[in-house]
Amino acid sequence: MTTAPTGLDADFYHFQDLLTPVEQEAALRIRDFMEREVRPIADDYWERAEFPHHLIPGIAATGVIGTMWPESRTFENSALFRGWAAVEIARVDASFATFVGVTSGLAMGAIGVGGSDAQRAQWLPAMGRGEVIGAFGLTEPLAGSDTARGLRTTATRRGDTWILDGAKRWIGNATFADITLIWAKDIDDGQVKGFVVRKDTPGFTPAKIERKQSLRGVQNADITLEGVEVPETDRLQRIDSFKDLAGVLGPTRIGVAWEAMGIAVGAYEAAVRYAKEREQFGRPIASYQLVQQKLAESLADVTAGLAVCVRVSQMDDAGTRRDEHAAMAKAFCTARMRETVARCREVLGGNGIQLDHGVARFFADAEAVYSYEGTYDMNTLIVGRAITGHQAFV
């Protein structure tokens, strides 16, 4: 007999009950791993700006990496489960959630959507087992929101070899990834193409970005590409334009919306614990009206965000989700996350800025999640275009 995992206190409307019994058991495995292995060390690694590489086999063993693809998944699962898994990880450590999201969502997603059958068979099973780590190289020093038009990295074909030249920035996992999916503009047709670049390829140089104050555990890199030679066999065979690439970004934006809710859940849980333990004027601060108001408002924001995530994931499973649906989810949930972590920090007063009390890390990490996978402004413009029929990007 199996036992469904105990629901999270922040799951006020019991959304987790929508998961199948198999999915709920998987959620329990993920939660157990995060509580047992990651939580005790998360603050320390965040403060040192290091990543706990030794935990990669353990998180892979939970089956959470590569859950979308038949070549790598260990059980049938839904978009709803994949989102809930992001909550379970992010409520403990957003840096670790970003690592999983990059290799499982972006890198494996690019290969799953754009790779040939042979490329999928070559990479996805090993990536799902955590034996091959992926990164996703789209953003550039001078091209963030305008990558659809402003991509400057070039790809030049010479026979059966492509030559890549350019630069990438803010590429998560890239300092240690085995492969990085590099997106470049074909100089012949002006279209965006995707390439699997192995870490030891001459001319491919990642350098860790230092002095970050958000997602410090994520090993972001500046990448230079100087005459990088990639065989045609390592070009993603089903990606021939930025429109094709956009097919990768929709599901990952939904994943970031779920991750944002995980961060909000983590901050809310810490604030509730603190409020029950911290005493002022002879009683726990949880007994005061203004503190209860902050907690109730935070729980309402979490519940609203989870509701949006649940519905857009159901639409994803049904095949009715469009780009504007994913964009709205990402924009709305990251905004609610930002408000929630700020409110929860207020509950802790001065202690809210110290790592030891459980909110400061979420408060800082929220800023990066608010911006990546499309800024709030860009995602609202995608929704605005769907509403009005007019594009207002420039």
Overview of the structural elements:
It is built from 11 helices and 9 strands. A hairpin with a 5-residue loop joins strand 4 and strand 5. With 394 residues, the protein is of the alpha+beta class. Strands 1, 2, 3, 4, 5, 6 and 7 form a 7-stranded mixed β-sheet that branches.
Using only C-alpha atoms, the radius of gyration works out to 21 Å
β-strand percent reads 5-15%
N-to-C series of helices and strands: HHHHHEHEEEEEEHEEHHHH
Q: How confident is the prediction overall: mean pLDDT?
A: 95
**Unreliable segments (pLDDT under 50, ≥5 consecutive)?**
1-5
| Spatial gap, N to C terminus | 58 Å
The quaternary organization reads as: single chain
Silhouette: globular
The total of helices stands at 11
- Count the beta strands: 9
Can you identify the CATH superfamily of the largest domain?
Butyryl-CoA Dehydrogenase, subunit A, domain 3
CATH architecture title of the largest domain: Up-down Bundle
**How many domains make up the 3D coordinates?**
3
Look at the structure and give the CATH class of the largest domain: Mainly Alpha
Helix content: 40-55%
Family: Belongs to the acyl-CoA dehydrogenase family.
Domain Acyl-CoA dehydrogenase/oxidase C-terminal: 248-387
Domain Acyl-CoA oxidase/dehydrogenase middle: 135-228
GO biological process, one term: fatty acid beta-oxidation
